[in-house]
């Protein structure tokens, strides 16, 4: 599933074919949605802050570009391109983009239904 289209067969595509959404100022989001998991590519403007939050989904994040300061369970971590984070369900986290555009790949399981609305 790309966005809200039902995906029954295998999908072979590239990011240029996936619709870009702008869920908030300074954020662009592209989603590939399967039956039990989803992959999202985010573009964040420099210095953008995502407030600390929790959710019931397991999450893995790959930093593709830029540097980002993550707050994970009250601890600060600065990550850069190539770094990976695993957030168990209900883990408190947030992020501040540093001095350049940040591109992240997030994988969630189960699907973040709130992102599909």
Task: For this entry, give a set of tags.
mainly beta; 10 strands; 4-stranded antiparallel β-sheet; globular; 117 residues; 0% helix; Jelly Rolls
Any chance you could write out the topology, listing elements then pairs?
Blueprint: E1 21-24, E2 27-33, E3 38-44, E4 49-53, E5 58-65, E6 67-72, E7 75-80, E8 84-87, E9 93-97, E10 102-109
Antiparallel strand pairs: 1-2, 2-3, 3-10, 4-9, 5-8, 5-10, 6-7, 6-9
Mean pLDDT: 93
What proportion strand?
A: over 45%
Helices and strands, in order, run as EEEEEEEEEE
Topology, number of strands: 10
Number of helical runs?
0
Task: Detail the poorly predicted runs.
Answer: none
Which class best fits the helix and strand makeup? mainly beta
* Top CATH class of the domain at 41-116: Mainly Beta
Write structural notes for this entry.
A hairpin with a 2-residue loop joins β1 (21-24) and β2 (27-33). A 6-stranded antiparallel beta sheet has the order 1-2-3-10-5-8, with no helix packed on it. The chain has a domain at 41-116: Jelly Rolls, CATH 2.60.120. The protein is globular, with a radius of gyration of 14 Å. The protein is built from no helices and 10 strands. It has 117 residues and is an all-beta fold. The chain has strands at 21-24, 27-33, 38-44, 49-53, 58-65, 67-72, 75-80, 84-87, 93-97, 102-109.
Short description:
This protein is mostly beta strands and about 120 residues long. The protein is built from no helices and 10 strands.
